[in-house]
Amino acid sequence: MKQQTGVGMVEILVALLVLAIGVLGYAGLQLSALKGSESAQTRAQATALARDALERILVNGASQPTYLDQSNWGGAQQFFGDAPPTDCYDSTCDSDEVATWDIEELEWQAGNLLPAGRIQVQSCGGGITSCVVVAWRDQDIDDCVSNGQIAADEDTECVVMEVAR
């Protein structure tokens, strides 16, 4: 009678293959969790930036029209590492100059806190309401609100907050 040899080796190789597939699956789950965490962090930062813009508009109520005029907002991406705007919080600045500085500061923060971040105030809801719009990465800031409708797709990379006039 001939004895079988090598069966134990095949069983070990199959077990290693199953283990390797399991480890690769676990690594894929970890990568997915990291992407989700990064997305949540970016969205939270964008929400905080939009809220900061709303609070600045409320605090400087005398210059509210300056904030709500879309032409005062660049909407273009500020580049990471650019110098921040010069400080205007001293006795020589009037409320309109503070509003202009706030807009520059918010745009600078969007570019430095978010990946390819942009911020602007634009008309939404039929022209009666304005919205603070923050977008990042490849999202076109003008696509966040179109025809008075706020984009609500799952893959939209923007935050929109309404400003009551």
From TrEMBL:
Pfam families: Tt1218-like. The chain crosses the membrane at residues 12-29. Residues 29-103 form the Type IV pilin Tt1218-like domain. Keywords: Membrane, Transmembrane, Transmembrane helix. InterPro entries: Pilus_4_PilV, Tt1218-like_dom. The keyword Membrane applies. NCBIfam families: type_IV_pilV. This is Type IV pilin Tt1218-like domain-containing protein. It comes from Alloalcanivorax profundimaris.
